[in-house]
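User: I've been trying to design a sequence by hand for this structure and keep getting stuck. Would you show me what you'd pick, starting by listing the structure so we're on the same page?

Assistant: Good idea, let's start from the same input. This is the structure you sent:
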């Protein structure tokens, strides 16, 4: 069974409630999405492995902890996932960034692939797939399958808002992929939008509507 972690940090909850509101403009929306992504990344990296390293401070030699093991890659699902990249890179600047382009067919709501460019050594990295919205789960399931087909094994998925339907589909399809969710909402509406949600994340980040 997949690990499903719904964030309970007060700052994350506060910021998500804020951006849900209609009338929050593009500049503010984009900035806060990035902040939420950074806070979620902090929570989602709690279990990264550390190793002892010997260092010398200006005062003396000592042993400290540094990250060990696999390096990280960040894969936003285009377009809206791009809004989460800078907030995470501000904490993990050495992460490589790949891109997966998917959009939902407006009639069937199934994902249609249009782009995929990954770091060459993606298969050796711990990969964080990011997308603000997990609605039917079709896009996330497809993106993660694309990564697995290319030999990527260590994958985590971070989304700001999820619907129960998407969580169910993801955990069925990819039980090995931990899910980090900012807020778990109530259901999908007849257009497969999350209720209460925040509307169309891509349009709100890029100001396209
Ligand atoms: C949105 C969102 C997810 C997807 C979620 O993208 O950013 O990728 O829908 O829905 P699902 O779980 O039902 O697949 P959209 O297809 O609107 O593309 P965009 O980011 O380019 O606006
Ligand atoms: N994509 C979005 O941007 N919002 C939703 O509520 C569902 C899919």
């Amino acid at each position: 069974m997949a690990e499903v972690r719904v964030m309970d940090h007060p700052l994350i909850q506060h910021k998500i409630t804020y951006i849900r509101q209609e009338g929050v403009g593009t500049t503010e929306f984009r900035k806060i999405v990035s902040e939420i992504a950074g806070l979620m990344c902090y929570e989602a990296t709690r279990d990264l492995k550390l190793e002892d390293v010997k260092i010398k401070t200006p005062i003396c030699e000592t042993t400290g902890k540094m990250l060990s093991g696999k390096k990280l890659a960040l894969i936003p699902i285009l377009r809206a996932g791009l809004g989460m990249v800078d907030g995470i890179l501000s904490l993990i600047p050495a992460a490589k960034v790949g891109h997966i382009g998917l959009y939902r067919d407006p009639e069937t709501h199934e994902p249609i692939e249009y782009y995929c460019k990954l770091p060459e050594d993606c298969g050796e990295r711990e990969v964080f797939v990011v997308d603000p919205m997990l609605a039917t789960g079709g896009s996330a399931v497809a993106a993660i399958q694309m990564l697995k087909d290319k030999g990527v094994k260590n994958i985590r998925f971070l989304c700001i808002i999820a619907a129960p339907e998407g969580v169910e589909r993801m955990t069925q399809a990819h039980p090995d992929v931990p899910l980090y969710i900012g807020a778990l909402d109530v259901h999908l509406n007849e257009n497969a939008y999350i209720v209460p949600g925040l509307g169309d994340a891509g349009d709100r980040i890029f100001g396209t509507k």
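That's my pick for every position. To get oriented when you compare it with your attempt: The helical segments are 10-20, 26-44, 85-89, 138-149, 164-173, 201-206. The radius of gyration is 18 Å.
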